[in-house]
């Protein structure tokens, strides 16, 4: 095991897959000589050249379309969004082309495409750089969506995504790149459709993902002082949602809290609540609690920004309220 930063884990995954398979290449704004906004592609252009680590113009719709075309011919492109918010400019290409072409071509084309980059609420990045696009893309058929939360799952998920024959969006949180943790020195892969049980417990099930995993862990440490032991599930896969792992936990706890940084209206939590209420309502001893960001553009002001997203204290209060 080696203790490395999350951005280094992503870089290792990219390097290993590019070294193994010459059809893998990276494209995006400043991914080459600059090394990417968060240094995920640092120095890869030296090893692989300027064609396989391709700097593009500031034209998301154009280079996303080029990547999809490259995937149709048998290449395996990795598109880095300098900020995932900018990929709204390529929404048409991602939804109408990447998500649908394998189906509308009758299976004649595969789209082995990875779309990855920083997103989420950072520290005073302003509304346009603080988007959480998981809810935007969740409804698009044909996409797989995962969100990494640790260096370990970041590397394992990216390697699996690169080898998958379908378009995969990997969401990375802008505030997790400098998170450091153990990563195996041997080759490993993680499934793109499975949640992770972070900690076991019998009192309440807490479902979360991305940066909120760490807020939940902080809350669980506080709750343990009062002999309250939640079961924590990191979704990891946002599409498809691993509902069975959640249901297995609910059979023990019968109580559910969902913690997300996504907006409350139409977010990932809303989809989970709908599925649980549709098919597993009898497992619930109390209404599901949804802790989500405020439905407003993220303020630039630091104090106002903090007020829009969930904090560990709110999670602790919600657990105690639910158990009472």
From TrEMBL:
Keyword NADP on this protein?
Answer: no
| Signal sequence interval, chain numbering | none
Q: Identify the keywords attached in UniProt to this record, alphabetized.
A: Chloroplast, Metal-binding, Oxidoreductase, Plastid, Potassium, Pyruvate, Thiamine pyrophosphate
Task: Give yes or no: UniProt keyword Chloroplast.
Answer: yes
Q: Which Gene3D superfamilies match?
A: 3.40.50.920, 3.40.50.970
InterPro entries with a match to the protein in the record: THDP-binding (IPR029061), Transketo_C/PFOR_II (IPR009014), Transketolase-like_Pyr-bd (IPR005475), Transketolase_C (IPR033248)
Q: Supply one GO molecular-function term.
A: pyruvate dehydrogenase (acetyl-transferring) activity
Q: Where is the Transketolase-like pyrimidine-binding domain?
A: 4-179
Q: Which cofactors, by name?
A: thiamine diphosphate
Give me the reactions it catalyses.
N(6)-[(R)-lipoyl]-L-lysyl-[protein] + pyruvate + H(+) = N(6)-[(R)-S(8)-acetyldihydrolipoyl]-L-lysyl-[protein] + CO2
The protein's assembly and partners: Heterodimer of an alpha and a beta chain.
Q: NCBIfam families from the xrefs?
A: PRK09212.1
Q: What does this protein do?
A: The pyruvate dehydrogenase complex catalyzes the overall conversion of pyruvate to acetyl-CoA and CO(2). It contains multiple copies of three enzymatic components: pyruvate dehydrogenase (E1), dihydrolipoamide acetyltransferase (E2) and lipoamide dehydrogenase (E3).
Q: Which PANTHER family match?
A: PYRUVATE DEHYDROGENASE E1 COMPONENT BETA SUBUNIT, PYRUVATE DEHYDROGENASE E1 COMPONENT SUBUNIT BETA
Q: What is this protein called?
A: Pyruvate dehydrogenase E1 component subunit beta
Originating species: Corynecladia elata
């Amino acid at each position: 095991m080696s203790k490395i930063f999350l951005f280094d884990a992503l870089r290792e995954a990219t390097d290993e897959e590019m070294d193994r398979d010459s059809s893998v290449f990276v494209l995006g704004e400043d991914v080459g000589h600059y090394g990417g906004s968060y240094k995920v592609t640092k120095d890869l252009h030296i090893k692989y050249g300027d064609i396989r680590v391709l700097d593009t113009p500031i034209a998301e719709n154009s280079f996303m379309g080029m990547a999809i075309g490259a995937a149709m011919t048998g290449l395996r492109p990795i598109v880095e969004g300098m900020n995932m918010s900018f990929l709204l400019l390529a929404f048409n290409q991602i939804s109408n082309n990447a998500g649908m072409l394998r189906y509308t071509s009758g299976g004649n084309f595969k789209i082995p495409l990875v779309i990855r980059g920083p997103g989420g609420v950072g520290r005073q990045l302003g509304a346009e750089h603080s988007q959480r696009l998981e809810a935007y893309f969740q409804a698009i058929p044909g996409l797989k969506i995962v969100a990494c939360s640790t260096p370990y799952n970041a590397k394992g998920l990216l390697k699996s995504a690169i080898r998958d024959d379908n378009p995969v969006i990997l969401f990375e949180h802008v505030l997790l790149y400098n998170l450091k943790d153990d990563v195996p020195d041997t080759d490993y892969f993680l499934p793109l459709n499975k949640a992770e049980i972070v900690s076991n417990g019998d009192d309440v099930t807490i479902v979360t993902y991305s940066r909120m995993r760490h807020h939940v862990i902080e809350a669980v440490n506080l709750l343990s002082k009062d002999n309250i032991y939640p079961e924590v599930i990191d979704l990891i896969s946002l599409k498809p949602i691993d509902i069975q792992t959640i249901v297995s936990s609910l059979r023990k706890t019968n109580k559910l809290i969902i913690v997300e940084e996504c907006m409350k209206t139409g977010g990932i939590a809303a989809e989970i609540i709908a599925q649980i209420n549709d098919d597993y309502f009898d497992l619930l001893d109390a209404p599901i609690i949804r802790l989500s960001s405020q439905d407003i553009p993220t303020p630039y002001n630091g104090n106002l920004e903090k007020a829009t997203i969930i904090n560990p204290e709110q999670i602790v209060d919600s657990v105690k309220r639910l158990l009472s």
